Amino acid sequence: MTDVLTEGHGSKLSHEMLSKAPPAILMFWLVKICATTVGETGGDAVSMSLKLGYLVATAIFLIFFAVTMTLQVRARRYHPILYWLVVVATTTVGTTTSDFIDRTLHMGYTASSAMLLGLVIAVLVVWKLTTGKIAADHITTRKDEVFYWLTILVSNTLGTALGDFSSETIPDLMPKLFHAPGVAWDAWGFELAAVVFAVLIAVVALLYRLKALPQAVLFWAAYVLTRPLGATLGDTLTKPHAQGGLEFGRFAATGVIALAMVVLVLLSPRLRRPAGAAAP
To answer: Phi/psi of residue 42, each to 5°?
Structure first.
């Protein structure tokens, strides 16, 4: 993982102990996928099930995000529950914001995905130019922390748009691009889209193991891809049978997955400590 300090080993370790993010281990990614799924089902529950609309729901979740992020940034050390609350806040904001752009402003999944991808890249470039590096799971300065959460917020919004693009736009687009007799493109749904994103994440993991690209870049690539995976899994759980979903209640699905998140964090001692912290 990219070093966040260039000082001596002892000074570096003492600073890494102050990291405000957990290590990017396998359990981290499992909890992150759960968090993105909670964001999808929870965002839809407020905007659709409660019929508040995307704009009102976005305003509610933005307040939730502002409160949790303020507490997170002002905290002097890493708090696992607070950290994951902010992640969930970014996923819910991302869900309703993306839906507002796509369905209320009628920008469409293709255009919104391209716009948000450009925005993620822009944030990372500004981060690099401002601090000289792009941090991943080692967050030890206030400036890095602000860029870290801004990147997460935009990437989770992008992930929602990508998830919807893959499960709803691709089935309509493929017959126009590929005239393949006997191929039922309408069979492409949430489940197959989730498999595609899972495969892409596996490719990123392989590149990480082979050290084929800078690890910070691969970290953020995985972070972006886990959001549409969670989005498609959330849609698979809650959408009607006619749309290829399992038609579970949005509130029930949100509660169960949120509980699973808490259990996973509590069962993983390493997730209860910040990145770089030594075992007690």
So the answer is: -70, -40
